[in-house]
Design a protein that fits this description.
mainly alpha, Methane Monooxygenase Hydroxylase, Chain G, domain 1, 5 helices
């Protein structure tokens, strides 16, 4: 058994040696100047404004995850379309189940408010006048 693992050990050793060599050479041969402009970030020719380390809202992350989920959905559906004739009815039923699961995921994202970017999420049981921020006087006038 150990005789079959020696190629893996040699490969791992070569990867470690090559990585160390590349990092060492870049440290030795790299430029070493400290000018004022060197430390500033380059933003497509535009002078940077504000702080680069700002907090990203969690909502952005939820939308990014939703994008990845539904982007991969498209890849799987395109692969299914390419093999449509070979898969037959079994493949059709599998893709229907797959799309149903993704539809349930979309409904979950929608109902949980992951796609609402406004300051206050509107709920179906909430009146629009409350959501719009109208006072009681304005809502009474509009309610007539």
């Amino acid at each position: 058994m150990t005789s079959s693992l020696w190629p893996l050990a040699v490969f791992c050793a070569l990867v470690v040696v090559l990585t160390a060599a590349i990092l060492g050479l870049s440290f030795i041969l790299g430029e070493r100047h400290r000018e004022r402009r060197t430390d500033e970030p380059y933003e497509s020719g535009i002078m940077p404004t504000g702080v680069a380390r700002r907090r990203i809202p969690v909502r952005y992350t939820l939308v990014a995850v939703a994008f990845v989920v539904f982007d991969l959905e498209a890849v799987y559906i395109f692969a299914w379309v390419a093999a449509f004739r070979e898969l037959g009815w079994a493949g059709y039923l599998e893709i229907v189940v797959f799309i149903a699961i993704l539809l349930a995921t979309l409904i979950y994202f929608w109902r949980s408010g992951a796609m609402n970017w406004g300051p206050q999420a509107w709920k179906p049981d909430q009146q629009m006048t409350q959501h719009a921020g109208l006072g009681e006087a304005e809502s009474e006038v509009q309610g007539k």
